[in-house]
Write a structure and sequence with these properties.
The structure holds two protein chains of two kinds. By secondary structure, chain A is α+β, with helices and mostly antiparallel strands. Chain A folds into three domains: 11-138 and 410-569, GroEL-like equatorial domain (GROEL, domain 1, Orthogonal Bundle); 143-217 and 377-405; 218-255 and 269-369, GroEL. Chain A contains 16 helices and 21 strands. In chain A, helix 1 (20-36) runs antiparallel to helix 4 (92-107). The longest helix of chain A is centred in the last third of the chain and has 23 residues, at 382-404. Chain B contains twelve helices and 16 strands. In chain B, strands 3-9-8-4-6-7 form a six-stranded mixed β-sheet, with helices on both faces. In chain B, strands 1-10-2 form a three-stranded mixed β-sheet. In chain B, strands 11-14 form a two-stranded antiparallel sheet. The chains are: A alpha+beta, B alpha/beta.
């Protein structure tokens, strides 16, 4: 019997952003996320007091999915960022930090939130128009005929995840592998509906990162295969190997219908009957000249033995996740019946061999094409491997997004400071009619724009975790980091050599100013220029689609949270 | 019809033609061009034994033969589909893997687990009924097929969905709205807001009719002229506000309707394009109405046409002490007059201007006299037709947002109250008139102080001087919806005021029928 419990009244709180607890937890979350940001970000160790798995990470996806927050305002923020990450994989921390920063800056303005929202939307549209225009000075177009820009993108993703514990050579090695795997996946002959191939990540833990490699085709782990024996495979006349892929169990378990009853007379064994049927299938496979049988589930030992005797390799327990890529790679159709085999279901392979990494043995299926490839990913320990796997998937996703929109944004904080400079310049020259349209005064607009720019700049500032100063120049609006330990009155040009993204050198007098601590002071800003030379080597680049969307989502979420005046929680 | 995607900026929302099913293909075989679709509602692989029946295995051979027959049968069905050029199979139940396998072999795409609502919708769009494969008709031609122009996978966020463009047999062309927002909650609110907007649009094209026209009476002439002058002022205003002067003549109803469809889609588009506060219906409506406004905003007849017949004074309710009984008093400045029943929509015949009519609402309640003075001014619906309009509120009438409806109503109730002799009606009219002002009051509360007073004075002054109203808001609202709202509110207030005792009960109230059926066990 279930007990009925009296319903609790809903918890009702007004003006959530004025509550101390909310403000404190928001700023705590903001500090935690800021400290994770960038290549020099500090790691977070997440573990449960009672023991078990320990996660060392600096990635937003790992942190946000494991944190539990008390207040609904924070859960909105976190859900928003997590949704963004699930779509774009990249720029999660950027979105989260920007969102927190926007909320904090806008809240301190003492302007009615509806006005703030209107103005900030206008600012966002200015940003988006600029980012999408040809004149945009903080984006580079990606040239797919050379690998350099693509490598920069992948390297930036890998470098921004310090918990992977990679050194420079490892980053270069992995970036090359990821790019290779990605290029494998791009189909050679593009039809109307081009579909990218797939890269399957094979885990090998306890090895050096530089042992990682990319192989065309698929690897299926098979503990029982002896290495010593050379593989003898039947081939067809065109020297290909015929493969049959089964997605039903071939263990001979009796067929169990869901409904109705089956009465079996004495002396009749359905199991035997099924096994005979399996052996019949085996016979047909042998007759059809099949050289390799892969089953998603289990193959009956007798059938396995029979196939082996007839020089057919049988691999079972391949798992559901391999069926789809295997079928794509070989052109075979997964067979779901052990009764009627159609010759059109068979696929073909170029070669089969045995590979072993660390202590694991794999059957390596080598296809004729490279639509599917395997990335054997090694790292020293489990938690670093998990982080690395996530980083590799992000990098792959970033490349996929870039192929759709061949643009990249300058990284290293330069896009943020450049955008802030652009907005400062743009808002100075705004006509009075636009204030009228938004229904606000010019002062209000300036204040909100300043808060918006400061939020963007604070994201760039979070890249720095030491005491050094952060500068921006008045010509390009890029971001420059001064090494720690120098007094703030130094001559900046002696101390900086390259901007955050690496596109500008310290060659001319760029008129630097400090980024931090100037909130509210008027800055006269000319329109930031585009760098004169766009060398594509060793730049820090960010994914265009992910960052644009992150910017929009951050602002939309901040506006949503600022607009909250009541929170009603159901406590039942 | 909508599908929500969380994690994308709101600006990514869009409208897609066709139907989106929120699940992936069980089997997908790319097919280009037009294709035929079959609907099934039962498993296509025959079971060895149906529920409630028994299958007796006499020999191993018989058992294998039966299973063999089942496989053959499934294969034959798919072959049959292929030979009938069917490229897509929609199933309300999950099909066995064998079915999927044969579907793939014979180039038939399969979508499983459609909900009953989806099946019903597809049936309505295409006019086909589910295909029954069993029986002996496996060789015959399949007649129950629907046609589709495309059928493709669609990536929504990270989920793959099925996107089908059915060739509709009815007027309804399905479109699907892809809503994007940072979190699911925002998407839900968007969806609700849009539903509200659509309901409003539907309401917008309703009208309040009156059955009869009367001639203006001498007594009301002064009033009529008053109204007339107001009307002319509004005309002026409209001419001013209307940038498209060519529209000062009537746009024919038909024309308007034609453009309506386009406008609606356009509306939804513009609505979603990076527009305003997601949670706010009002904003949505604002944009929704904008395109419409070009077509019909203040579809004004010339001043000469704007005679007394156009402007109506319907009646609001008021109450007196004891008010158990309601009385509706009808009055009209112009020639028409109507009664409001509490049910609101019914409109009754006209009477002479000064005549009062009483209407029993609560039949068995005690009789107290209570005068109800509904009152309404129609500004923008001024005769679209050549002659004096037959309706009180024209289909598609709109007013600018920002409290103008309330101010206008307030002003006219006050005017009306002033020239009434009966003191109760005057008092009550004033109460209603003042209550109406609470809406603009709260609208202007959020902005700077005194702004309501400013707005009110400006508006009232303009009305007194017959000047055009100062307009600063862009949005429009449906007069019909407002009208329904005011009448419902008055009805609700009357009901609340009639309650004299509230009895609390411990248990949830049950319907009488339930009690009867429970019995005494």
């Amino acid at each position: 019997m279930s007990r009925l419990e009296a319903k609790k009244p809903p918890l009702f709180s007004s003006e959530p952003l004025t509550k101390d607890t909310v403000i404190q937890s928001l700023s705590l979350l903001s500090r935690v996320l800021k400290s994770c940001y960038g290549p020099a970000g500090r790691l977070k160790q997440l573990h449960n007091g009672v023991g078990g798995y320990v996660c060392t990470t600096s990635q937003s996806s790992a942190i946000l999915s494991r944190l539990s927050v008390s207040h609904p305002v924070l859960s909105v923020l976190m859900a928003s960022v997590q949704n963004h990450v699930s779509r774009f994989s990249d720029c999660g921390l950027f979105t989260a930090i920007l969102c927190c920063s926007l909320i904090e800056n806008f809240k301190s303005l003492n302007i009615a939130s509806c006005t703030v929202i209107k103005i900030s939307k206008h600012l966002l549209s200015l940003c988006m128009d600029y980012l999408k225009s040809e004149a945009c000075g903080c984006r580079v177009s990606v040239d797919f005929s050379s690998v350099e820009t693509l490598l920069c993108l992948v390297r930036s993703v890998l470098r921004s995840k310090p918990a992977c514990m990679l050194n420079k050579t490892e980053v270069d090695h992995l970036a090359m592998l990821i790019l290779k795997a990605f290029i494998f996946a791009v189909p050679c002959h593009v039809e109307t509906n081009a579909v990218l191939g797939k890269c399957v990540i094979v885990p090998v833990k306890g090895r050096r990162v530089v042992d990682s490699t990319v192989l065309p085709g698929l690897l299926i782990e098979t503990p029982e295969i002896q290495l010593a024996k050379p593989l003898t495979v039947k081939r067809t006349c065109s020297n290909m190997i015929k493969i049959a892929l089964f997605c039903v169990s071939m263990s001979g378990d009796t067929f169990s219908p869901e409904e109705g009853t089956i009465t079996v007379h004495h002396g009749i064994s359905l199991e035997m009957s099924e096994l005979n049927q399996l052996l019949n299938v085996g016979k047909q496979l042998v007759n059809d000249g099949v050289g390799l049988v892969v089953c998603q589930k289990v193959i009956h030992p007798s059938l396995k033995q029979y196939l082996k005797e007839n020089n057919v390799i049988a691999v079972d327990r391949a798992g559901l996740s391999l069926v789809e890529p295997l079928s794509r790679m070989t052109g075979s159709k997964p067979i779901a019946s052990i009764r009627l085999l159609s010759a059109s279901s068979y696929g073909s392979l170029k070669d089969v061999c045995i590979e072993s990494f660390a202590s694991k043995h794999f059957v390596h299926l080598i296809p004729d094409n490279t639509v599917v490839c395997s990335l054997i990913l090694c790292n020293r320990n489990e938690t670093a491997w998990d982080e690395l796997k996530c980083a590799c998937e992000t990098a792959e996703h970033v490349l996929q997004l870039t192929i759709k929109e061949p643009l990249a944004l300058l990284g290293g904080g330069c896009t943020e400071t450049h955008l802030a400079s652009y907005i400062r310049h743009k808002t100075c020259s705004l006509s009075t009619s636009s204030f009228k349209d938004i229904d606000c005064s010019q002062t209000q607009y300036q204040l909100v724009a300043d808060g918006f720019c400061c939020s963007l700049e604070s994201v760039a500032c979070s890249l720095n975790h030491d005491d050094g100063e952060i500068l921006t120049d008045m010509v390009y609006g890029h971001c420059w980091f001064v090494p720690p330990g120098f007094p703030s009155v130094s001559n900046w040009s002696d101390l900086v050599s390259k901007c955050g993204c690496g596109i500008n050198n310290n060659t001319e007098n760029l008129n630097w100013r400090l980024l931090q601590g100037q909130f509210g002071s008027p800055i006269t800003q000319g329109c930031p220029k585009e760098p004169s030379v766009k060398v594509a080597d060793f730049l820090t680049l960010d994914c265009f689609a992910a960052k644009c969307s992150g910017l929009q989502v951050a602002l939309e979420t901040a506006n949503l949270i600022l607009d909250l005046s009541y929170v009603i929680e159901d406590q039942n | 019809l909508h599908a929500a995607v969380a994690g994308l900026p709101v600006a990514c929302s869009r409208v897609l033609p066709g139907l989106v099913l929120r699940r992936d293909f069980a089997a997908y075989c790319p097919a280009s061009g037009d294709l035929r679709v079959v609907l099934v509602t039962e498993p296509l692989r025959p079971a060895l034994a149906d529920p409630g029946t028994e299958f007796v295995v006499d020999s191993e051979g018989q058992y294998q033969a039966s299973l063999h027959w089942i496989s053959r049968r499934t294969e034959a069905f798919m072959k049959h589909l292929q030979s009938n050029d069917v490229k897509l199979l929609l199933s309300s139940v999950k099909q066995e893997e064998v079915v999927i396998y044969y579907a793939k072999l014979y180039g038939v795409s399969v979508v499983e687990c459609l909900s009953s609502e989806e099946i019903a919708l597809i049936r309505e769009i295409t006019g086909v009924s589910p295909y029954m494969p069993f029986g002996n008709n496996i060789s015959g031609e399949i007649t129950e097929t629907a046609a589709a122009t495309f059928c493709q996978p669609l990536l929504l966020g990270s989920k793959r969905c099925v996107h089908i463009g059915f060739t509709s047999v009815c007027a309804f062309q399905p479109h699907c709205l892809i809503l994007c927002g940072p979190v699911d909650g925002v998407n839900e609110q968007h969806a609700v807001a849009l539903q509200g907007a659509f309901t409003m649009l539907q309401q917008l094209f309703k009208r309040v009719d009156q059955r009869e026209e009367c001639k203006a009476e001498g007594e009301s002439q002064t009033e009529a002229s008053d109204v007339c002058s107001w009307h002319s002022s509004s005309t002026q205003k409209q001419v001013i506000t209307e940038n498209m002067s060519c529209n000062s003549n009537q746009v024919s109803e038909r024309q308007w309707k034609k453009s309506r469809d386009e406008t609606e889609t356009q509306i939804v588009d513009s609505d979603l394009q990076g527009r305003e506060n997601p949670a706010c219906v009002q904003t949505d409506l604002q944009i929704l109405s904008n395109p419409i406004s070009h077509i019909k905003e203040f579809n004004v007849a010339t001043e000469g046409d704007g005679s007394s017949g156009d402007i109506q004074k319907p009646h609001a309710t008021g109450k007196r002490t004891g008010d158990v009984h309601e009385n509706y008093k009808s009055d009209s400045f112009a020639d028409n007059q109507r009664n409001y029943s509490t049910a609101v929509s019914a409109v009754d015949g006209a009477n002479a201007v000064t005549e009062c009519e009483r209407l029993d609402v609560g039949k068995d309640l005690e009789k107290t006299s209570c005068n109800i003075v509904p009152f309404k001014h129609e500004e923008s619906c001024v005769s679209t037709a050549q002659n004096y309009s037959n309706s009180l509120i024209e289909a598609g009438s709109v007013l600018p947002v920002g409290g103008y409806f309330e101010i206008l109503l307030h002003y006219y109730i006050q005017c009306y109250a002033k020239q009434l002799q009966q003191s109760e009606v005057t008092v009550i009219s004033n109460v209603v008139a003042d209550a109406l002002l609470s809406i603009p009051k709260s609208l202007y509360r959020t902005t700077e102080r005194n702004s309501f007073t400013k707005f009110y004075l400006k508006a009232i002054n303009a009305l007194r001087k017959n000047q055009p109203l100062p307009l600063n808001e862009k949005g429009l609202e449906s007069v019909y919806c407002k009208y329904q709202l005011v009448v419902s509110v008055l009805h609700c207030v009357t009901e609340l005021l009639s309650i004299d005792l509230v009895i609390g009960v411990k248990r949830p109230l049950q319907k009488i029928e339930d009690n009867d059926s429970e019995g005494d066990f």
